[in-house]
Amino acid sequence: MTTPAKNPENRYVNDLRRLEYGQSQFFGMRGIVVPLGLSVLFLAIVGLLVGRLYSDLGNETLIVVIAAIVGGYMALNIGANDVANNMGPAVGGKVLTVLGAVLIAGICETAGALLAGGDVVSTVSKGIISPESGEISAENFRFLMLAALFAAGLWINLATWLSAPVSTTHSIVGGVLGAGVAASGFGLVDWDTMSLIAASWVISPVFGGAVAAGLLYLIKIKILNVEDRITAAKKWVPILIAVMAAAFTAYMATKGLSKVWKPSSLEIVIASVAAFVIAHWFAKPHIARKIVGRKNIKKDMYGLFDVPLIIGVALLSFAHGANDVANAVGPLAAIVSTLSGADEVASKVDIPIWVMVVGAFGIAIGLALFGPKLIAVVGEKITRLNSPRAYCVALSSAMTVLIASNLGLPVSSTHIAIGAVFGVGFLREYVENPNKRKLRPGHKLNATADDAFDAIAAHRKRRLVRRNFALSIAAAWVVTVPASALLSAIIYWLLQLL
User: Fold this and answer.
1) pLDDT tens readout for residues 184-193
2) Is residue 13 assigned to a domain?
3) What domain of life (predicted)?
4) Domain that holds residue 367
5) Distance between CA 105 and CA 85 in Å, rounded?
6) Are the C-beta atoms of 410 and 124 separated by less than 8 Å?
7) 344 assigned to some structural domain
8) d(CA 215, CA 411)
9) Domains of the chain: total
10) Which of 19, 95, 176, 307 is 20 to 30 A from 88, alpha carbon to alpha carbon?
């Protein structure tokens, strides 16, 4: 029996379908393969350059190269996960595009890390544990810090893949803690420093939320909820810009320019007051021009906060670079500090410039390659943001991070930013729903089941903060420290077997 001839047209259609499927798979994989390839290229360059820089160390050269690569890997993950907390409000408030946010954050993160990141590095690398007590050798100390870096990077990588904005500070602190306990028991841990860090975890989101809510309440009662909004905006928006300029000047005077200028307290106050006056002088005509042609409605007032918001997120990114670069290169700096030839841990961490460069550029590259995903999560999932709300979140987060960096504490910018977003959301619920208690189901007997479900739906619509998302964030926060500590302990034990 002869088989019927195949229809050539069907064969061509099938070939076209296979080609189309292959193209779709290629373009889908391109969004994963290209960032991964560029990340591997960055880490390879770091390894090669550090290998040439320390080529005369013999066997220790390999340790430094591996530590530099792992430190760069950690920096990439910080950029992918933690920087989203800085740029999320501006993107969620529809003030910046994702591309614009990435460009601004990349520049400011790098500048903050290189200009003002040194003081916090010593806290992360040498404050959590006490190796100078003689309980651990220099070789084991290197393994300890290497395990902490790798474990924290792995955990943050997993969290980013799951779209969970976790704390990179929690991750590295948990990593150092877990490896320290595995190396020499609980006695190696400096529990006084750990208690200060733990206290900052609680204080950070509460303080960030309170400041953000206070700023938004001020904007509402002074600008948005008055009869003559145009006149009020002309008065108050320049003042808000001036306050932000004064805060940024105070931080730069105490931290950012400390290598070339060490001002007294009086000089800092004078510089901040001068910045306030100058910023107010420039902002007043700027706002007067922008407000021309606008109607006396809330929506038309929102655009006046666009420039202050951009300045705020830039300030926040600078502070984040200064504070969180320690999470990437603190342990790396500690490893480098042991390369003195003696079998002991140096009493002070000397931070080479290349270590800071690896952390700064790693954060910027990680943000550009992987950050947009979590930027959208932070900016849109918790509560709806507009320009004034996003401005309050950004400025509150910046102020809290700046204070923490000034004190040398490795606080979590994730907790601060998320706390600020929740502060704004809960204030909206309180101010915009004054009769919310009357809407709660159960306060009155509903005539029918449909009425009961309608009452529940009405109540949920007035909940302007997504509680379910809050629970998932809280769960990720709780798991981060023990998970990174356990991973770090396992990695440390594996390194001991090599």
Assistant:
1) 777 767 777 6
2) no
3) Bacteria
4) 37-200+314-382+473-497
5) 11
6) yes
7) yes
8) 22
9) 1
10) 176
